[in-house]
Amino acid sequence: MTEGLLLLLKVSVGLLILAIGMGSTFSDLAYLWRRPGLLVRSLLAMYVLVPLAALVLVTLLPLAPPIKAALLVLAVSAGAPLLPKKLGAFESDAYVFSLVVTSSVLAVVLVPAWVSLLGEHFGMAMEISPVTVAKAIAKAFLLPLAAGMVLRLLWPSWAQRWSDTLLAAAGIVLMACGVLMLATHYELLLLAHWWGFAALVALMLAALAIGQLLGGPTADDRTALAIACATRHVGIAVLVATSFPGPRTAVLIAAYVVASAAVSIPYLKWRRSKAAAASAMQLSQ
Q1: What is the pLDDT of residues 174-183, one digit of tens each?
Q2: 226 — phi, psi (to 5°)?
Q3: At what angle do helices 156-184 and 130-154 cross, to 10 degrees?
Q4: CB-based contacts of 1, cutoff 8 Å, min separation 6
Q5: Where does 215-247 have alpha helices with state H?
Q6: Which tens digit of pLDDT belongs to each residue from 50-71?
Q7: Which side of the chain, N or C, has fewer Cβ within a 10 Å radius?
Q8: How many CA atoms lie within 13 A of 117 on its CB side?
């Protein structure tokens, strides 16, 4: 059952990426590259500072090796296909699409490098090579993205209309898989004790803070980067987790799918309330 759920997780992420391609334009994809300052800050936050925060946590907290592995795997799995779904109410579509695509393309190179470093850190030989990881990420991301953009090019109205529906449906499947995996392997979660859950929540809170600080002067960009840092690419994380022996790391990543919502939802409510207050103040003036 675990293998079936992992496969369904990967399929749902592929559908999310297809939906992103269906809802984006080439102008959207180039948004970040026309703003080098925001590009550098975004990549620094997602690929450097969040992994460093995870390294600090696994160094300071008394965590079991599988918990350490899960935190580090999540930290290096940048590229958040759920980002457009979570940020639907914010006016940052071009930045969101460009950030998702740019970070996921770079993951083809950067994630395998992190895989090698993680293998050295845990003193174990990886079951799959970094080159295999790179090829799998490229295949899992670039193909559905290209297919979605071709659909947008051929049938723009249809693709735009169904993009949000597909995003919502795939997101529900992703969450359901996470819950089912947790229910199936609850005994593994009990072994994590409260330190493991505290570390997972701490990592996501740190990621939100990093994105909020580096998002720049625009409120919507700060919100988008904060959620991007805290919402890791589950498809990449599952792929990397299979490099480690045993099912524990993958199961703990499933716990992240559920826990991420618990941390992100209050943050988004806070950001929406601030945006509403700012709009009301502007109207009153």
Answers
A1: 777 767 766 7
A2: -60, -45
A3: 140
A4: 184
A5: 219-230, 234-241
A6: 988 988 888 888 877 767 777 7
A7: C
A8: 12
Query: 214 and 42 in contact (C-beta within 8 Å)?
Result: yes
Q: Cβ(108)–Cβ(134) under 8 Å? A: yes
Q: Alpha-carbon distance 197 to 255, whole Å?
A: 9
The per-residue pLDDT for 141 is 77
Under a CB-based contact definition with an 8 Å cutoff, are residues 253 and 73 in contact? yes
Both tokens of 178, joined, read 């996470």
Interatomic CA distance for residues 58 and 109, integer angstroms: 24
Look at phi and psi of residue 79 and say left if phi exceeds 0, alpha if psi is from -120 to 50, else beta: left
* DSSP string for 11-33: HHHHHHHHHHHHT--HHHHTTGG
What is the DSSP code (8-state) at residue 34? G
pLDDT at 128 over 60: no
Angle value at C-alpha 49, between 92 and 109, nearest 5 degrees: 80
Which phi-psi region, left, alpha or beta, contains residue 104 (left: φ > 0; alpha: ψ -120 to 50)? alpha
